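Input (NADPH:quinone reductase):
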Amino acid sequence: MAKAIRIHEHGGPEVLRLEEVEVGEPGPGEVRLRQTAVGLNFIDVYHRTGLYPLPALPAVLGMEGAGVVEAVGEGVTEVRPGDRVAYAGLPVGAYAEVRLIPAHRLVPLPDDIDDVQAAGVMLQGMTAQYLLRRTYRVQAGETILVHAAAGGVGLILCQWARHLGATVIGTVGSAEKAELARAHGCHHPVNYREEDFVARVRELTGGEGVPVVYDSVGRDTFMGSLDCLRPLGMMVSFGQASGPVPPLDIGVLAQKGSLYLTRPTLMTYTARREDLLASARELFEVVRSGAVRIEVRQTYPLAEAAQAHRDLEARRTTGSTVLIPGC
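Output:
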């Protein structure tokens, strides 16, 4: 038996329950993983509330973690017992001391990246990788807009984009978050509580607008984001922390300059193992080079997952947050 955080119904943080669960032996293609660190992400909130429905309840939440392989099932060739590994993506089940997981979703960890850092970077870091290098390939000399620039993905986007030679405009919700974003590569933090971010983007770009907006906020920023784009610009909506975007008349995209709109997911971009490994490899390279610093700014015992969710939803967290099993 092992401890895990499960939900039996959808709702607020109070539905998260610490329970004993039976893990069992790994089946064909599976690994039994003893987890040392578990990443907290906003998609966990979506699963908890039912915004993103899970296949069945009760369910263990969580899509990111790191640990040590305890046992492997028949046919597993990707990893061996004793290997340090990390993962991000489906299937859910990370909020646990021990779990079963398909071996093909695991990425071997370099010796110089520790488990807590890995659990805080895999989902957010590989998200930043596909956003910057595949969804819209940011080039040196471009100016881009990143919403929630002091959040987990935001801090990585700012650093990585600056490393690529881009100028970064980032929205934040406080003076403290503005300083944090600036310290992590954001050239122009914009406090949306005090400034009109659309007007500020237009001012900073000489009225031209930006070629791409990375928006994880959703409802509150979506239409303003469209107004920040130059003609033929790319609107990348990859989250909805403020709520889902209302239905859109696609004619708006024509009116605002023949804009492109995409709603990408990490699971699609890493569905093939070769893409997963390539994404992780590029992420590890920029982290190990120092171009991107991964700061786990909050840790909670796994048993306190409900409080971690409260703090995340209240926007009291910055950077990456990790849950620690067994403490």
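The longest helix spans residues 115-135.
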